[in-house]
Each structure stands twice: as structure tokens, then as C-alpha cells.
Design brief:
Elements: H1 34-43, H2 46-50, H3 69-87, H4 91-100, H5 109-120, H6 128-139, H7 153-161, H8 184-192, H9 203-226, H10 239-251, H11 257-287, H12 292-297, H13 307-325, H14 328-350, H15 357-360, H16 368-380, H17 384-393
């Protein structure tokens, strides 16, 4: 590991001076690298601001201390920068990818995405990664010269492929996309600006993906404890967590619960970050990549958990799934949110002029697939509170969405 505070860029890092460029050519900035420019465009986008009122697990108004998509995204970006710095990767690209990774998420978290996926099943489906690509290449309409943010190839590649290749060497969908196929929005853009869908993404994108997992584990434990869905003692069912709690209790016997929770979550992040750095350094040394393309061409990701921490990550997720995401209190709210999204979709499919003019214009005579795509774009961009207001606006029986 490099000395604290030392910034460097390894040969296998993406170099902004050698970017593959943008779909629409632009003059270089005299004050920022291309990746810094991407990061800044993402931060200033409307979609990024809307993350403030989009749900993680709890609806936005449940409490001031629960995470939203925005606070989660900021936590992911901090972890991604730390990992990139330790591994000699480009911090600005890793940060841009972390900041953009949730731009395609719907209101009401995964509940909204599941509902929209079902609604869109006859029209090509809905996928939040594909939606994020649509946001940054089409739906953001701020610049005079183009739609979208006109991000660099490296940022777009990482946004689409941060979870791994989408196609195998024969051009067939990888297991993740085998059932429904690669989303049409990704294939259509790839035809314009080849993102090399059969390779892994850059090390920076792999860093952003692991940072997302680490942030999820830590903050979902924190939020679940604060919500009273489980206790610290319940979490001892996870050996990794039990060990961290033992460390805390040995050092600070009788520590008050709020501090004990914070000590636990910070240790989850620290242990996981340190493990990813050590495992990734081992993999990078074995691969000896000469450049960023060697990372992409590797048979497996080079940024990863060790086997022991991969098991700990799996154990945390296996615990949280039934005890948080499927907790009876959360399920009640999820069902209500699911109904809101489905009823909004059905209403605007039947009456597209009920959407604002910029969304509904020209849809009265449009065929069903085009209408569905526009309706899905509109709903996906909603915040939780906007979706609730829109549902009330169509005369729906709108629930409060409170976890009782």
C-alpha cells in the first residue's frame, strides 16, 4: 500500500490524457481533466439532485438519519476514491462512476424498479443500469450542442459494465442477461459508440462496484438497527459481525448503543476496504497488467474481496434479506409503493397528456412501445414525494408509506 496521502497513477490505470473521447467532440478544458469534467457534469445534473428524495430502503420522510440515494451515493464515492488511491487508479474516474451508478433508479428503491420492470415487460423491460445510460446520453437536456452529458467513453463503459461483461466471446448475453437479453437501450448506444460489451470494465469501474457493496453493507446495518428491525445482539448470527462486536466490547465495555453502532459500521467499512486493497494488489501482481486494457481483458475481475470477506459479504446480505428488506413492516410499505408505480404507469399509458407537456407531447397517436418508454422515463425520474403527489393528482387512494 502506498504512503498515506500519496497520489499516484499506475500503468494499468485509465489515463484521462489518453481517453477514447466523447461521442460529440469538444475542446479540452484548460483547468480540468476529462474525467474531472465528467464528474462535475454528473454532480450538476438534474438526475443527481433528484437522488436526495429517492429511497434506499425507507421512504424519504421516515427520519432525517436514514440514507437516501444521494447520501448512499456520496458514501460510495468516498469509498471508491479511497480504494482507487490505494490501488493507483484514477480517482476522478472512480468518483464519477460512483456518483453516476444510481442515476437510473426509480422512486421507492428496488420496489419501484421491480414494478416498472413488470409494467415494461411487454415493451422490452426496464433495467436501472440501462436507464442510467439513457439519463446521461439522452434524458438530461441542458447543453446546447447535444442531449445528455456527453461523458467520456471510459465513464460510459464503466457505467454499463461495472458488474462485469454483458456479452460472452460469442456475442451471447452473459448469465445476468440470459433470461431477458441485454437491454435495448444499451445495445442501441453500443452501436453508436462501441463500449466493448464482452470485456470487463476498467479497474476504476470495478472499484466503484465494490464500493457500492461495502457502503450497502455498512449503511443497511446502521439503518436497520436505527429502525429497530433487529438488534446488535441479533447480528451476532453473522460471524464477521460477531468478531467486530467482540473487538468493540473488549476495548470499550459498556459503551452506549449509539456509539456501539457507529463503531460497528465504521469497522465494517474499514475491514472491507483493507481486504479489497490487499486482495486486489495480489491479483494485480499476478496479472502484471501493462495498461488499462489488460485489466479489461483479464479472465476475472482484478478488484475483489478475498474468499473470506466474500463469504462475510454473502453472510451479511443473507441476513439482511429476510430481516430487513423482507421484514413484515418493510413489506407492507413495499406493497403500497408497488401499487403506486403500477397505477401511475397504467394511468399515463391510457392518458399520456396527463404528463407534463415535455413528456406527453406527441404521444396521443404514438404506438404502445414508444408511449411506454416515455411513461417509464417519466416515472423513473420521479422522486418519492413527486410520485406520491402524482398519484394523488390522478385521484388514487394514496397511502402514507410509513413503516409502523
Amino acid at each position: 500500500m502506498r504512503a498515506f496521502g500519496e497520489r499516484w497513477r499506475a500503468d494499468y490505470a485509465c489515463d484521462p490524457a489518453r481517453t477514447r473521447g466523447r461521442l460529440v467532440m469538444e475542446d479540452a478544458s484548460p483547468t480540468r481533466s476529462d474525467f474531472q469534467r465528467d464528474r462535475d457534469r454528473i454532480i450538476h445534473s438534474s438526475a443527481f439532485r433528484r437522488l436526495k428524495h429517492k429511497t434506499q430502503v425507507f421512504v424519504f420522510h421516515e427520519g432525517d438519519h436514514y440514507r437516501t440515494r444521494l447520501t448512499h451515493t456520496i458514501e460510495v464515492s468516498q469509498i471508491a476514491r479511497a480504494l482507487a488511491r490505494s490501488l493507483g487508479l484514477d480517482e476522478d474516474l472512480a468518483e464519477a462512476l460512483a456518483l453516476s451508478h444510481d442515476l437510473g433508479h426509480t422512486p421507492f428503491g428496488h420496489t419501484g424498479e421491480d414494478a416498472l420492470q413488470d409494467c415494461m415487460a411487454p415493451y422490452g423491460g426496464f433495467d436501472h443500469n440501462a436507464q442510467a445510460l439513457r439519463v446521461v446520453t439522452q434524458l438530461e437536456r441542458r447543453y446546447a450542442a447535444y442531449d445528455g452529458l456527453n461523458l467520456t467513453w471510459e465513464t460510459l463503459e464503466g457505467l454499463v459494465k461495472h458488474n462485469g461483461p454483458l456479452l460472452d466471446d460469442d456475442g451471447e448475453p452473459t448469465p445476468r442477461y440470459r433470461e431477458h437479453g441485454v437491454p435495448g437501450a444499451i445495445l442501441a448506444f453500443d452501436a453508436l459508440f462501441d463500449l466493448r460489451l464482452a470485456t470487463h470494465a476498467s479497474g476504476e469501474a470495478q472499484v466503484a462496484a465494490l464500493a457500492d457493496d461495502i457502503a450497502y453493507n455498512a449503511h443497511d446495518i446502521d439503518d436497520g438497527l436505527r429502525a429497530g428491525l433487529f438488534t446488535l445482539e441479533d447480528l451476532r448470527a453473522i460471524p464477521f459481525i460477531a468478531g467486530l462486536l467482540d473487538d468493540i466490547d473488549d476495548r470499550w465495555p459498556g459503551l452506549e448503543t449509539a456509539r456501539r453502532i457507529h463503531e460497528l459500521t465504521r469497522r465494517v467499512i474499514t475491514r472491507m476496504v483493507e481486504d479489497v486493497v490487499a486482495e486486489s494488489e495480489r491479483r494485480i501482481a499476478a496479472l502484471a497488467p501493462a495498461d488499462a486494457d489488460a485489466i479489461r481483458a483479464a479472465a476475472h475481475p482484478v478488484v475483489a474481496f478475498s474468499p473470506a470477506l466474500r463469504e462475510a459479504d454473502r453472510a451479511i446480505k443473507n441476513y439482511l434479506y429476510p430481516n430487513m428488506y423482507r421484514h413484515r413492516k418493510v413489506i407492507t410499505v413495499r406493497r403500497q409503493a408497488d401499487r403506486i408505480v403500477r397505477e401511475l404507469f397504467a394511468h399515463f399509458m391510457a392518458d399520456p397528456q396527463g404528463m407534463p407537456a415535455e413528456w406527453g407531447a406527441g404521444l396521443a397517436a404514438a404506438d404502445a412501445p414508444l408511449r411506454a418508454l416515455r411513461v417509464a422515463d417519466y416515472i423513473a425520474g420521479m422522486t418519492d414525494n413527486y410520485a406520491l403527489a402524482a398519484h394523488r393528482g390522478i385521484g388514487g387512494d394514496t397511502p402514507e408509506l410509513r413503516i409502523g
